[in-house]
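Notes from the 1:1 (GR / supervisor)

We went over the backlog. Supervisor wanted to see one worked example end to end before approving the batch request, so GR pasted a single chain during the call. The sequence is below; no edits were made to it. Supervisor asked that the structure be written out right there so they could see what the output format looks like.
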Amino acid sequence: MLESTRLGYLAAMGVVGWVPRECLAHAAFRLPPVLPEAANELEEQTRVGAPETIDTSQTPSAQSAKTVTGVESLRARISTRPINTEEKLARTIEPADTQQVVAEPESQSVPLASFYLQLWMAGPCALLIETPEPGLESASPGLRLLKDILRAVQLPQVPHLYADFQWPLNRNPQFDRSAPAASLALQAFMQGRLESEPVQSIGCFGTYPQLLLGPELDGLALVAAAEQSLESLPPAWFAPDLEALMSDASSKAQLWQQLKRIMTRWQVE
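Structure output shown during the call:
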């Protein structure tokens, strides 16, 4: 440890007099403290084998108490090292500042759970679907339901898989895995994939596609009524995931009422 750092720690703890037990690395040479002249007198009084200085009329406890009192008075008279300005500032730091510095790491963002999305293309409509890995397969019930939805809104019934998105992007634990970071990554992913595609609308199935609107993931009931405008992307409409649609008939009816208002965007006369 550097000498300046060691002295700073001692000053912060209020230690003004100390003696190392072992030789300190990188420590500057120090002269021993200057003792007052009365130190010699105390040595003569406490020296063993000097019967002329021992008062036999006093009890041993009284003699030891007198010796301790003399030592304390000498310690008080020992010259100490002057405290510089930096040490004074270190002592005047308020506890609130220390608590604020310690509390900063606790405000770090909470990692978002892992999820997997697939981007399908169906003519002028892109479909961003939340699904477990490895995704929709050719004979899966979810894909059959998706084809039924596309047929009902007059879109190509045979969509093709265009790209997939997996969060987190890598396995590095130091990588930011918060909801704001996932939202920015998904927006960049969609902008890069749809930049050269003639897409007029984006259909989002599931919870995590809502990251296109922002880091909040609890607004599905608010965004399911109509299309939502997105920055640098076509407008998007939102629906529950395919598994929820298969198990809830009321969700299908809601989605159909929503799509009847939106399908005019891609209908061709």
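Supervisor's comment: The CA atoms of residues 109 and 143 lie 36 Å apart.
Batch request approved.
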